[in-house]
Every structure is written in C-alpha cells, then in structure tokens.
Design goal:
This protein has 145 residues and is an alpha+beta fold. The chain has helices at 17-25, 37-50, 96-110, 124-131; strands spanning 12-13, 53-59, 65-76, 79-89, 115-118.
C-alpha cells in the first residue's frame, strides 16, 4: 500500500516498511510510555514475517499518519485472543477511534477469536462506556531493589 493510494481517514492493514517505521516512531509521542523502541520494532517485524500480528494505519488529508494500532494473536488456556500491543490516534482525530475498534472486531470474527485484550494505565471507565469492555484484572508491581 502506498500512501498516495489511500483514502483519508480510512483504516488499512499495512506491511509497508516506511509506514512501519512511522508506527515505531509514534511511541515517542505517548506519555508515560514503557515500550522500548528497538524491541517494539523487532516485534513488528516478527508479526509481519510470521503473520502473527497486524498493523492497522490511517492517514489524514495531508498523507501523514493520523492513527495506528498493532494487534497480535495469542493462545492461552481459554483459547485464542487478540492483544492490542499499541494504539495511537492523533488527538485531533478522535472520530477514528471507533473505526479502529470496529476493524479489530472484524479481525476477531474472521479468526474466530472470542476475546480482545489490552493493557491500560488509565481510562478504564471510559473504555467500558465507549466500547463495551470490562476490566478483568489489574497488574500490581513491586519494585525490587
């Protein structure tokens, strides 16, 4: 997919190298981000190579990235689940958020995945209200000195 071929504010799957680099660079724009850029880049390469994950992107009228989401497939004792590794949407394009989550639902149905999971540090109630999610657990952390 070339950026010239895209419609503005439409969600696309991508494996384009330049676009993947843009996605990796977006982690710098996230507050309190704990993703390590080299590891994140390797993870994207693995997802693209062995088809265990998908990278969704959207571009604005100016052909600049205005949203991206990285999703991977996993299996645990309860079956398959989709994990949202990373999501970024331009703060001026909140209307895209619903389009990205609808695309994740389509993906889950296509692969017969019953659960979609993500890690968050804030905004649980908003996600419950807007997208029908529910909190099933929180991660507790103890610093080892």
């Amino acid at each position: 997919m070339k950026q010239e071929e895209t419609k503005p504010n439409t969600v696309y799957y991508t494996t384009n190298f330049e676009t993947l680099l843009e996605v990796v660079n977006k982690i710098d724009e996230i507050k309190n981000n704990d993703l390590y850029k080299p590891d994140f880049a390797k993870r994207l390469a693995i997802y693209v190579t062995n088809k265990s994950g998908l990278i969704l992107v959207s571009f604005g009228e100016d052909k600049k990235l205005n949203g991206c989401m990285v999703i991977s497939r996993h299996i645990d004792n309860f079956g398959q689940y989709a994990w949202i590794d990373f999501a970024w949407i331009d703060k001026h394009c909140n209307y895209l958020r619903q389009a990205f989550y609808e695309e994740v639902d389509i993906l889950a149905r296509a692969f017969k995945i019953k659960r979609i999971q993500m890690r968050m540090s804030r905004g649980y109630k908003a996600m419950e209200r807007l997208y029908g999610t529910r909190e099933i657990a929180r991660i507790l952390e103890k610093e080892v000195i």
